[in-house]
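Quick one:
INPUT:
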């Protein structure tokens, strides 16, 4: 954190679609005593917006990155006990709320992916623009690193990660070069990986489509942090955390993330009754109502202010009744909304 002061970090990151998030959450957060979970606290930009816009609301901010929590905690200190920061992975939302003695919440906000703080902290290895150790863990205290993935996965698995999570056309070629290079010595630096990727991509394609290592870095980051597996568990757990009338707003930046969001929200907004039943039993009625039509994207004005909004897909839904028992997975310790 020594490279940055707080003011710098707070202004460096403009929260994506902040006003739209506030508008979507407003009906759910209208009552006194409302609680919102910001599952991706980051530098606290969205949370600060919520705390300012809704002076009676309390926010529980979750992040798996201890640095982000420390920074956001300092930024949000003026709000006193209206803000509580918790170090956790966001699929632990149920346990986090249990630990705070909170039954259900009126809002959940998820702004997925990495923060500009993480990209800017050169030593963490998220950025292809700076040579650094191959790490890429959002929580640097545990779990596998990018070096473990590039040196430990077999060629096929490596190619699959690059192709699926990075949508990298040259995944097989890059994986082959990585395997050849590591036979001589394990890869340890992001710079070595960038050079290998660059050399694996045909010269003609190198000129188009942004930095040649962008997709490889994205793919490794998703794999290192288990981002899709965690999100797949976190979405239903977040819906379960919502009280009736509560709303969930999710901003995704990757098509696979957005697909999971779309699927979870659509499942809740669809009747689970068999199609041949003449009358829909109450127990099979939808428990969510979609409050965005499809995925919303950033408009020109937002894009001009905030380049990070480029690939955002925002979806939101409101809980309209408890999840029927036959659709509830095991939720240790949690009661129905
Ligand atoms: C895009 S940033 C959020 C920025 C924030 N909305 C703001 O306005 O400052 C995403 C944050 O979510 C955190 N994060 C990503 N995946 C997570 C997970 N599975 N559990 C908890 N935090 C996660 C990252 O560490 C990062 O700080």
């Amino acid at each position: 954190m020594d490279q940055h002061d707080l003011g710098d970090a707070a202004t460096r990151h403009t929260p994506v679609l902040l006003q739209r998030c506030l508008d979507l959450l407003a009906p759910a957060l209208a009552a006194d005593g409302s609680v919102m979970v910001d599952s991706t606290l980051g530098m606290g930009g969205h949370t600060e917006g919520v705390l300012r816009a809704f002076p009676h609301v309390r926010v529980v901010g979750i992040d798996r990155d201890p640095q982000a929590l420390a920074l956001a905690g300092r930024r949000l200190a003026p709000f006193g006990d209206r803000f509580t920061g918790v170090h956790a992975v966001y699929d632990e939302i149920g346990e986090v709320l249990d630990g705070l003695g909170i039954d259900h919440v009126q809002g959940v906000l998820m702004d997925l992916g990495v923060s500009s703080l993480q990209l800017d902290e050169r030593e963490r290895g998220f950025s292809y623009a700076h040579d650094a150790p191959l790490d890429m863990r959002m929580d640097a205290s545990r779990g596998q690193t990018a070096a473990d993935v590039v040196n430990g996965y077999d060629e096929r698995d490596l190619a699959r990660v690059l192709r699926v999570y990075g949508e990298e056309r040259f995944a097989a070629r890059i994986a082959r070069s990585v395997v050849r290079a590591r036979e001589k010595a394990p890869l340890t630096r992001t710079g070595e990986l960038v050079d290998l990727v660059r050399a694996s991509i045909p010269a003609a394609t190198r000129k188009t489509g942004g930095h040649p290592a962008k997709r490889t870095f994205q793919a490794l980051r998703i794999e290192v942090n288990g981002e899709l597996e965690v999100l797949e568990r976190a979405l239903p757990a977040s819906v379960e955390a919502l009280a009736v009338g509560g709303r969930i707003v999710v901003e995704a930046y990757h098509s696979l993330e957005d697909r999971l969001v779309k699927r979870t929200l659509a499942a809740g907004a669809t009747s689970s009754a068999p199609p041949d039943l003449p009358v829909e039993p109450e127990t099979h009625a939808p428990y969510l109502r979609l409050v965005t039509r499809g995925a919303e994207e950033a408009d020109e004005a937002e894009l001009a202010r905030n380049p990070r909004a480029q690939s955002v897909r925002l979806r939101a839904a409101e809980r309209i009744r408890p999840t029927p028992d036959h659709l509830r997975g095991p939720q240790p310790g949690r009661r129905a909304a």
